[in-house]
Structure formats: structure tokens, C-alpha cells
Amino acid sequence: xxxxxxxxxxxxxxxxxxxxxxxxxxxxxxxxxxxxxxxxxxxxxxxxxxxxxxxxxxxxxxxxxxxxxxxxxxxxxxxxxxxxxxxxxxxxxxxxxxxxxxxxxxxxxxxxxxxxxxxxxxxxxxxxxxxxxxxxxxxxxxxxxxxxxxxxxxxxxxxxxxxxxxxxxxxxxxxxxxxxxxxxxxxxxxxxxxxxxxxxxxxxxxxxxxxxxxxxxxxxxxxxxxxxxxxxxxxxxxxxxxxxxxxxxxxxxxxxxxxxxxxxxxxxxxxxxxxxxxxxxxxxxxxxxxxxxxxxxxxxxxxxxxxxxxxxxxxxxxxxxxxxxxxxxxxxxxxxxxxxxxxxxxxxxxxxxxxxxxxxxxxxxxxxxxxxxxxxxxxxxxxxxxxxxxxxxxxx
Length: 396
Ligand code: SF4
Hints:
Layout: E1 2-7, E2 9-10, E3 22-23, H1 31-47, E4 56-63, H2 71-84, E5 87-97, H3 99-102, H4 107-113, E6 118-124, H5 128-134, H6 140-152, E7 158-164, H7 171-183, E8 188-193, H8 201-207, H9 216-232, E9 236-239, E10 242-244, H10 251-257, E11 262-265, E12 270-273, E13 276-279, H11 284-292, E14 301-302, H12 305-318, E15 323-324, H13 325-332, H14 336-349, E16 353-355, E17 359-362, H15 364-368, H16 370-387
Parallel strand pairs: 1-4, 1-11, 2-3, 4-5, 5-6, 6-7, 7-8
Antiparallel strand pairs: 8-10, 9-10, 12-13, 13-14, 15-17, 16-17
């Protein structure tokens, strides 16, 4: 099982962000959050006795800005989990953080000492003008300093998060950010295209014509040339937006893409466990009240088999390893080439897909248009499913 802990606080909100988090200008995480989180861990451990779920293989503090927590708070949470759940001996413990808050004196060494084994740092760009435009609170030189501090603190598994397709960004500018990030020698890199989410300040600015986003051709070059640069520097792409040196794929996210069960804790955290899915209240006070009242997993939705099948296809196709035909067959009860063979062959002909007797996988060009490809594929799979549903005859 994967454990996700949502830490819904940031020093300041970035203009493009649609994640649930509240601004904490003084950076002090409220005690209410920590007390409720510990109570949520306790309650879940009672609801899920050790024998009923797999050992915890990954604990992921995501946000928000988990690096606003004090190391003693992180340590208390990890101790509570270890005391109440079966935790795998090689459990990966990741903490997301921003360079400005990770630079606090002593924090990195204390995080390492309390059991955090992997740091995922929100760098976003190595260009100070882009960082200012995004509303980030750090500079490129601070990123370099924090990576050096993390190494001195004993972190041997570092990931840097970067963003491309930024307003005003050129292909050369993006490749320069990537090259500088590689020079820092992280074990893992994530490279997400900026997506303008509805209701964010960036959305308002785009509507007002204030954001000049790169055109389609530049975006394509950023993805393909960026990918080539990373592969050249020893980072293998294992998911559309994720690259790693051998042995350093993110176990937690890989678990999501492969369909593992996960328990989410904290405001707005999503869980998927034993065929059901639910979301914790996306508000600190409401979440704390429901935990205090012993209300866990309110309004869980059963995941219908057809949804599970489409989610599996969509998530597996995000990975470089692709979708094993046997996985599709086990869920659908039919073979994928039978359900969508002609469409898959056409994708192969266009150079968007590779297919052999074991699996299908998107090519790099296919990854660029993955949403369109999966939507089209879903249509065909739904039609195939409908065609094999026996028509109801009149009652005799
Ligand atoms: S620091 Fe991260 S989570 Fe917080 S507002 Fe910025 S992008 Fe969103």
C-alpha cells in the first residue's frame, strides 16, 4: 500500500497552481493540522488491521509545501505510521519541498535523520526571470545551494521538478534549464508542461491576453529535444513527464500508474482502496472536524469495472513500459487487438505507438498527443464493450 500525506500550506500561492493549499505567510503549520493528522493515522490503523492490507511501501509527503513542516513534526508522523501500520523495511519516504523553505538551518540533516530518504524539490526553472514570473520565492542559485546542502545532509535520492511551456519561454531557454538541472546531478527529474487551470490567476491573465504561451511547434520541440537531452545525460524516460537514473524511479508515483492501492491523509487527499475511492474534505477546519467526529472515508464511490479498465489503459499508457496485453485481457475478459486492433495498427503506422505480442506503448511522439490518443482509444473500447453486451429480449 502507498500512503500519501497532503500538507496543504504554502508560504504564498503561485499564480498557476490549482492544488489545494492555503497561504501561510509566517510559514508556521497549525498544530490543529498535525493533531488531526495523527488522529487520522490512528483511526485508519484501527479500521485497517495490519492483516487486511499490504505493508506500506511508500510514504509521500506532498502538497502544498511539506518542507514548511518542522523535522520534529515529520518525525512524529513517521513514528505514528511505523507504530500503527506494517511498514516495509525498504519503504521509500519522500518529502516534497521548495528550495526557500528547505534552506532553513539544520532542516535537511534533521529530515534525513528522522527517516526521509527521498527529497523532491520544486525547482521549476533555472532562469530567475521565469521564477519571478511564476511567483516562486527562490532563485536558481538557491536551488544549487540547497542541492549541495541536501548532499551534505546525506540525501542520496534527489528529484528536481521542472516546468516547460512557460509564458515567454523559448526552446533554447528550456534546454538551458534542463542542462543546468542535470549539472546538479539529481537521481530523478520531473518535467511537467505548464497547464493553465480554470480559476487560477494565470487563467485570468491568459484570458486578458497577458500570457504569451509557446506555440505548438515550440512545445513539440521542447518535449522532444528535452527528452533527447535528458536521455543523453543518463536519465531514462519512464513516464511521460518523469525521468530517472537506473534504480531511481519514484516508487510512489509508479505505484499510482500501475494501479496500486493508496490511502490519502490530510485535507483534499484522495484514497483508492479495495475498489473504492473517496476524497477527504478540501478544507482544514472541515477535515479536522470530520476526523474528530470519527468520520472517515465519507461518500466512498465504488469504482465500476469499466472505469477501472479505462483508468488502467490511460495510466499504463503514460508509462514507457506501456500496457501489457495480459493486463487488459485480465480486466476486460477480451483481447485488446480484438477490441481495437485496426485503430492500434493505424497508430503504429503513424509512428505514435509500438505494439508487439506482449504490450502496446506510446512512442515519444505518441506521448506528445497522449490525451487525444487515449480519448480515441476509449471510444473504440466502449463501442467494443457495448457490442458484446447481449441485447435484452422481451420477457417471456
Ligand atoms: S508552492 Fe507548489 S503547491 Fe504551493 S502554490 Fe506554489 S505550486 Fe502550488
